[in-house]
Amino acid sequence: MKKYLLILLSIPLFSFSQINCDTVMVDPAGTEYTHTRTRGYWFRANSSFTISAVKAGEGNSLGVNATHQSIEIIQFTNLNLFSDTIPLGYNDIIAGLTNPHTSLFHAQNVPLGWVTCNVPIIQNRYYAILGAKNNAVVPGIGTDMYNSTLSSGSGITKLMLNGDSTVFWRAAIQESLADGSGSSGQFFHDGPHSQGRIHTLICTGSTNIKEITTDKELVKIVDQLGRETKSKSNYPLFYIYNDGTTEKRIVVE
């Protein structure tokens, strides 16, 4: 019997009824930052939970009419779980060092609003969430990200994640996530303040999330190297549809 493991990378629209859900807003809005670079925040999880959905924050006047968003959630894979290790900073990255990571979710150029992700967060592991609003992507031209950052003042800044007071720090990548998933190892620690504003929905129990589906057609199937292929078992593949959504599937046999 085949078992299907399906990871939804991007879904245009969905509705949900909140059952034991906590909406975590990164507010208030502070500095505007418009560039072909993306900002967000990173944290060490104080408990295990699931990020059920994400959406980019408002607050950038240049992007007030932007209709899309691009968001990525990653796990830093090489940090020491038993100390206060933090990811490498920008100067380390430009010197040729890297922050190895695993991408857990990437919504590329999807419509504004909550987008479901269902990303499991594991206690004591290190994660980053980056993203912002963007206009429609034009191939071959870097897409501006309308980052809006937190007005955090001074001192340590915290979020309530899964009921835990969690210190969170600014994270960055010198790339537009609207143009693709972040390059390997290139996400970095960017200081204690002005975190990029991505809101999250954290749910426990049955969330009764129902997708609003539209007619869509499969355009092609590609492997992790972007090569077109046919469906196969025990191997991660990406199913690309004509409405701009992408699904990562692993058929376990």
Give a description of the structure.
With 253 residues, the chain is an all-beta fold. The protein has two domains: 20-210; 214-252, no CATH class. It is 2% helix and 47% strand. It contains one helix and 19 strands. The protein has one helix spanning 90-94, and strands spanning 3-8, 14-16, 21-24, 29-35, 38-44, 49-56, 68-76, 101-111, 115-121, 126-134, 145-150, 158-161, 164-173, 188-189, 198-203, 209-211, 218-222, 237-241, 246-252. Strands 4, 5, 7, 8, 10, 11, 12, 13 and 14 form a nine-stranded antiparallel beta sheet that branches. A hairpin with a 2-residue loop joins strand 12 and strand 13 (164-173). The protein is globular and about 50 Å long. The relative contact order is 0.31.
Short recap of the structure:
By secondary structure, the protein is mainly β.
What percent of residues adopt helix (DSSP H or I)? Answer: under 10%
Termini separation comes to: 7 Å
CA-based shape: globular
Order of helices and strands: EEEEEEEHEEEEEEEEEEEE
* Main beta-sheet strand count, sense and barrel state: 9 strands, antiparallel
| Count of separate DSSP helical elements | 1
Q: Tell me the strand percentage band.
A: over 45%
Over the alpha carbons, how many angstroms does the gyration radius reach? 18 Å
Give the tally of β-strands. Answer: 19
Mean pLDDT: 85
Low-pLDDT residue spans: 1-18, 206-214
Task: Please indicate the count of domains.
Answer: 2
In terms of structural class, how would the helical and strand content be classed? mainly beta
